[in-house]
Amino acid sequence: MSKLTGKIAVITGGTTGIGLATAQHYQQEGATVVVTGRNPVTLESARAALGPNVTVVASDTTSLDDLHSLSEFLQEKFGRIDILFANAGIAQFAPVEAVTEAFYDNQFNTNVKGLFFTVQKLLPLISKGGSVILNASIVSVKGMATTSVYAATKAAVRSFGRTLATELAPRGIRVNTISPGPIATPIYDKLGMPKEVLDQFAAGMAQGVALKRFGQPEEIAKVALFFGSDDSSYVTGTELFVDGGLASL
């Protein structure tokens, strides 16, 4: 039997990158998959990539109204969920002098507020034995220049991973955190850098990794599969660095 047969999985930010790769892995392992996103173009591309058995929902994690509507939709369509991968997030880098209030608020609203209220609003639907997976980042422990705001948002996610694991354990719900290193996803294309600058940035980042390369979305998806499946039935409150050794070596 496949690892996720009979399970219902919701992946926020599931239309590109890590979220899309995870949706594909979950489908392959028998899950009924729901992905959310806010970009009409990527919503349609995800629907095409994942096929007719996926449920694609336009939902913005920064909007509590959208999250409430998502919860109502899931309740009506499925009655429960077994896996929640709170994956939606953004990354913007700037030196401290260049940070504006809008820059700060945009990242905290998505990466912190959006993630927290995603869990809160969908929690009543998560069945006993369910799994909540949070997507953080190794920047929260590395102190990299120009990442002050982004790193702080991901440090908050790490904290949520521990406190929510404690709070939800009596309900039989596990909470674990994935902290990726540099992963080859479209998020880097959204930094607004010229291509030559982006290529130089990526090359420098890869040199700091013990394995001397970027990771692939599929390599994060495999960890999300582990945390979502019963293979991790005795694992909660854990943060797993999937970073080619960057945070430790």
Q: State the helicity in percent bands.
A: 40-55%
Order of helices and strands: EHEHEHEHEHHEHHE
The CATH homologous superfamily is termed: NAD(P)-binding Rossmann-like Domain
Low-confidence stretches: none
Q: What is the number of E strands? A: 7
Main β-sheet, spatial strand arrangement: 3-2-1-4-5-6-7
CATH class: Alpha Beta
Q: Could you tell me how far the N terminus lies from the C terminus, measured between alpha carbons in angstroms? A: 38 Å
Instruction: Please count the helical segments.
Output: 8
CATH architecture: 3-Layer(aba) Sandwich
Structural class of the helices, strands and pairings? alpha/beta
Specify the biggest β-sheet. Answer: 7 strands, parallel
* Averaged pLDDT: 94
Write down the CATH topology.
Rossmann fold
Which geometry do the CA atoms define?
A: globular
Beta fraction: 15-25%
User: How many domains is the backbone divided into?
Assistant: 1
Per-chain topology:
Blueprint: E1 8-11, H1 17-28, E2 32-37, H2 40-50, E3 55-58, H3 64-77, E4 81-86, H4 101-122, E5 126-135, H5 139-142, H6 148-168, E6 174-180, H7 195-207, H8 217-228, E7 239-242
Parallel strand pairs: 1-2, 1-4, 2-3, 4-5, 5-6, 6-7
Note down, in words, how this protein is organized:
With 249 residues, this protein is of the alpha/beta class. It has one domain: Rossmann fold (3-Layer(aba) Sandwich). It has eight helices and seven strands, in the order E-H-E-H-E-H-E-H-E-H-H-E-H-H-E. Strands 3-2-1-4-5-6-7 form a seven-stranded parallel β-sheet, sandwiched between helices. The mean pLDDT is 94.
